[in-house]
Amino acid sequence: MTTELTHAVLPESDIPTHWYNIVPDLPTAPPPPLHPGTKEPLQAADLAPLFPMALIEQEVSTERWIEIPGPVRDLLRLWRPSPLSRARRLEKALGTTARIYYKYEGASPVGSHKTNSAVAQAYANAQAGVKKLSTETGAGQWGSALAFATQAFGLECEVFQVRSTYDSKPYRHVLMETFGATVHSSPSDLTNAGRELRKRFPDTPGSLGMAISEAVEVAAMSSDTNYSLGSVLNHVLLHQTVIGQESIKQMAMFGETAPDHLFACAGGGSNLGGIAIPYVRENLEGRAAVHIVACEPKAAPSLTQGEYRYDFGDTSGMTPLLKMYTLGADFVPDPVHAGGLRYHGMAPLISHLYHEGMIDAVAIGQLESFEAGVMFARAEGIVPASESNHAIAGAVREARKATEEGTSPVILIGVSGSGQLDLPAYQEFLAGRMADS
C-alpha cells in the first residue's frame, strides 16, 4: 500500500558513503578501451597525462563499493540527499491509473545532477596537485558544475562550450564565469583542433565531440592541467550512483518495493547511469524487475540507430577508442535545445547494458519532449531541463498506455535538472516556432 506522502526526504546521514561499481556484478565484462595508436587494451599509464591516479583507479576498478572521500561527502551535503516525490498532480492531469514518482536533481548548486561528479573529480585533481582543469560542455550544466567544484577546491577551470548553446543559452556561460571559469565558444580558434574543425565544418553549430577535442588538447599541452569529463567514462557514472542508491531507500518510504518502469534521459550516459545502475543491481540480484528505459533525442539516437563498435569519443580522434553505440565521431547533431544530449556516442558501460538486454531505449522528438515538460511544469511546479523532458515524455507515454490497458504500474522518472536557464527554448515552444527533430 502507498502512503499519502508527497516528498520522501532522507536525512543527511543517509547520503551514500560509497559509490557503487556495477562492473564486478555483471555476467560479462564490458569490452576494454583501446589505445588509439596500438589498438591494444588501454593501460592505466596511458591515462596519466589527463587524469589523476585516484580517478584512473576508479575507472578500472573491480571493487563493488568505493568509499566517497570525506571532503567530497561534506560538499555533497549542500544538496544531497535530493528529494523523491510522488507526482500526484501530473497523475491527475493525465487521468492515469499509474503511480508516478520523480527523483529531482535540480536543487544542486548549479541545478543539475552533474555536480555529483564534478566535486569528486575536482577533489581528486586538487589532491594530486593539479592547478587547472579543462573540459567541454553541451547545454552548460557540466561546465557550470565543474566551475563550482573547481573554485570549491582552489582550482582554475577552462570550458569549451558547444557553439549552438553558447549562443542560445548565454546565461549558462555567465553562470560558469560567476564561479570563476573561463569559457570559450567551440570550435574556437584557440586550439589546433578547433582551427582544423572550423576548416572541416564551416559555420558548424559545434558538437560535444568537437569541444572534447579542444579540451583534451589544452590538458595535453600543459603539465599542470588535467582534463575532466562530465559523462561517458566509468568513473563519472560511478559518482552518479548516489542518485539511484538514495532512490531505492526513498521508494521504500512510499511503500513501494521498486518501480515497474524507470525513465531517464540519455546523451553520454551519466544521468541514466546514476539512477539506473543501482536498479540494475536490484534486477540482477532478484529483488526487482525494473524495466529501465534510456530516453534519447531523435537528433542523436546513438542507442536506437547507432552501431555497436569501437570509436573515438571526440571528433578529432584524440581520445582512446571506446566500444559503444555510436553514430560516428564526425556526426554533428541538429542544434536541438537539449544540448546535453547532443553526443554521437553512448557511455561504454551503458552501451554494454543495452547490448546485453539489461536496459531498453527509445528516441523522442523535441516537440514531444517539450509538450511533456510543459505539462509537468504546470502540474508539479518545476520547469524541467530540456534534457529531462525526454524522460518525462517517455513516462507520459507509459502512463497513457497503462490507462488504456487498465493497469497500475509504478513509474519512476529521473528529472536530471532545472530548466530555469532553458526558458528561451520554452518560449520558442510556446510560440509555436520550435522545429521537431
Textual characterization of the structure:
The protein is built from 18 helices and 15 strands. Helix 6 (141-152) links the parallel strand 6 (132-137) and strand 7 (156-162). The longest helix is centred in the C-terminal third of the chain and has 18 residues, at 388-405. The protein has 437 residues and is of the alpha/beta class. It has a domain at 7-15 and 75-111 and 235-430: Rossmann fold, CATH 3.40.50. The radius of gyration is 20 Å and the shape is globular. It has helices at 44-47, 53-60, 70-76, 88-94, 115-127, 141-152, 163-168, 170-178, 192-200, 208-220, 234-240, 242-253, 270-284, 302-305, 348-355, 366-380, 388-405, 423-430, and strands at 7-8, 18-20, 65-67, 84-86, 99-104, 132-137, 156-162, 182-186, 225-227, 261-265, 291-297, 307-312, 321-326, 360-364, 410-415. A seven-stranded mixed β-sheet has the order 1-4-5-15-10-11-14, sandwiched between helices. Strands 8-7-6-9 form a four-stranded parallel β-sheet, with helices on both faces. Helix 6 (141-152) runs parallel beside helix 8 (170-178).
